[in-house]
């Protein structure tokens, strides 16, 4: 039986993961055996809803007791500090998106993971949905990609990391079409709560993300290539966590990592640039 611990209980993902494994039984021969929460009430609620048998006092309590750990905070600034002692104990780690809050911190963590030969991965579950995978497959016929535009919910002033919180879903999808050669990214502020992020790539490809707070947008991707255009709404699988859980459980069992440093850190680099761009507002001349 594969034993899994979860660090973080404020995020709804914790209960969803535990329910999929412990209650629905969709992952054979695996069980979420323990949880640590930012607040006692968070841990207690997750344990009850996900039928998790143990609440630990600190993340380090998982050392020697589990085969893999999910690190799952709402704000990415908390991810790597909590994960570091577990990494040093050589426990395989799935670190929920975004992987970290600063690229240099992430580089150092992944470098240390390689030194210790520890399997570590991170991703948004949006690119794991069947609708996205089908679009990715069909888009191969477009040839060289010129432009990718995504749309989705995002509050750039969220207390859980601003654009990092929910912006990660769009940027993770977008970069899987464009590649990871982004050289410039900025947020173009709207007059209300909806904004547009633009990304320029060294290849000449351009990208844009519609960051929508005022409204209820579905996730959407539009791609223009040398041979045409494709547009698709990215709908969730029946259980939108299932494919992601399958992937990190496979990694816990085999130590095989399907993501790369680029796919893990590339989205963080773009989000970090977008956050910094908010401090560099350039007024537009009027009265022409």
List the SSEs and their pairings:
Blueprint: E1 2-7, H1 12-23, E2 30-36, H2 40-50, E3 54-55, E4 68-71, H3 79-88, E5 93-95, H4 103-116, E6 120-121, H5 130-138, E7 145-153, H6 164-178, E8 182-188, E9 195-201, E10 206-212, E11 220-225, E12 228-233, H7 242-254, H8 261-277
Description:
The chain is built from eight helices and twelve strands. With 288 residues, the protein is an alpha/beta fold. The strands form two sheets. Strands 3-2-1-4-5-6 form a six-stranded parallel sheet, with helices on both faces. The protein has a six-stranded mixed sheet with strand order 8-9-10-7-11-12, with helices on one face. Helix 3 runs parallel beside helix 4 (103-116), helix 4 (103-116) packs antiparallel against helix 8 (261-277) and helix 6 packs across helix 8 (261-277). The N and C termini lie far apart (70 Å). The mean pLDDT is 95.
Helix count from the secondary structure assignment: 8
Q: Find the structural class using helix and strand composition.
A: alpha/beta
How does the major sheet shape up? 6 strands, parallel
Unreliable stretches = none
Q: What is the strand tally?
A: 12
- Give the terminus-to-terminus CA distance: 70 Å
Keywords:
288 residues; alpha/beta; six-stranded mixed sheet; 12 strands; 23% strand
